[in-house]
Amino acid sequence: MADPEVIPDYHRASPPATTELPQQGDKLNVLLVTRGHPFDRDSFFEIFDSNPDIQYSNVEHPAAQYMFTPEMAKNFDCYVQYDMPGIKFGDGPPQYFEPPDFYKEGVRAMGDAGSPLVILHHCAAAWPAWPEWSEIVGGQFLYTPMQSRGVDHPDSGYNIDVAHTVTPAMDHPITHGIEPFEIVDEVYLLPVFEDSIIPLFRSNWDFKRNNFYSAANAVVRGELNSNQDWDHPNGSNLVGWIKTYKNSPVVYLQFGDGPEAYQNPNFRRILSQAIKWASSDEAKSWARELYKKLS
Questions:
Q1: Per-residue DSSP letter, 163
Q2: In the predicted model, what is the mean pLDDT of residues 61-84?
Q3: This prediction's pTM
Q4: Rounded to the nearest 10 degrees, how much is the dihedral formed by the CA atoms of 199, 140, 226, 98?
Q5: What are phi and psi for residue 145, nearest 5 degrees?
Q6: Segment 116-126 mean pLDDT
Q7: For the purposes of burial, counting CB atoms within 10 Å of the CB of 229, is it exposed (0-12), middle (13-18) or buried (19 or more)?
Q8: Eight-class DSSP state of 7
Q9: Is 7's pLDDT higher than 80?
């Protein structure tokens, strides 16, 4: 018989768990969207558990797709996306599939409504068969050679656990208090739509073919960390930016591949400030005005 005075830690919820839709209060309500790419779950969620300024709900695909409506978005200050839907891996080349129409319509309606998005790391590879998603992100990671913005591109490059120095590119609420810092993280060699974004962070890593490995070699040939028979033009050293999608403020941060990056205090501060800024009236007003100018 267990000691009635002892309650195991795993029976204790901290903060207290709830199954209700979040209520507005002193903390920002965040919907955290995941699934589609492996990650260290405990250390990733600890980033959000330890942030005293937010409360969050996590939802995975495919159920997450039903959350992308303006009506559901009203319950949250910001969506943080760490998902990679639209790709099925297996033997041979990955299969790409479009999102269902209701999801596309919901995402577009959220853009009209000005719902904020903070998009992380591998989410730049999501929905390769739906070009509109890459326009929302402001860049696109390609697992196989394909078109991006109507132009043929080779598959993108990756390099895991790279020690590189990140420097703010502008004075902004997201970069506030951030000096150049070193982070060990995965970097990408990918098309970045520099004409559609406002730079936040640049890396001192050399974004050239010899410093990366072929994504297609990894997922099609099963050859990890190989750039054999692969060519790629030099790429952008941008690793963070802001932009708009219709009336929505959008933040993309390339950071966040694994536990060492998750534990980096600068990454945590940047992510926290990104959520705070994207959720703010200032960001929403900025997005509306910029979209009006571009329309």
A1: E
A2: 98
A3: 0.94
A4: 160
A5: -60, 130
A6: 98
A7: exposed
A8: -
A9: no
**Other CB atoms within 10 A of residue 266 CB:** 17
pLDDT tens-digit series, residues 131-170: 999 999 999 999 999 999 999 999 999 999 999 999 999 9
Distance between CA atoms of residues 13 and 234, nearest Å:
48
Task: Determine the Cα–Cα distance for residues 193 and 215; give it in Å rounded to an integer.
Answer: 20
What's the mean pLDDT when you consider all of the chain? 95
Would you say the C-alpha torsion 203, 204, 209, 213 has a positive or negative sign? negative
Percentage helix, strand, coil, to 5, in the chain? 30, 25, 45
Domains of the chain, CATH where assigned: 28-294 (3.40.50.880)
Q: What is the DSSP string of 168-200?
A: ESS--TTTTTPPPEEEEEEEEE--B-GGG-EEE
Which residue, among 291, 272, 275, has the nearest Cα to 116 in the 3D structure? 275
At 32, is the secondary structure helix, strand, or coil? strand
In the predicted model, is pLDDT for residue 1 greater than 60? no
Three-state SS letters, 87-153: EECCCCCCEECCCCHHHHHHHHHHHHHCCCEEEEHHHHHCCCCCHHHHHHHCECCCCCCEEECCEEE
Give CA 233 to chain center in angstroms. 24
User: Residue holding tokens 């479009």?
Assistant: 98
What pLDDT shows up at residue 16? 57
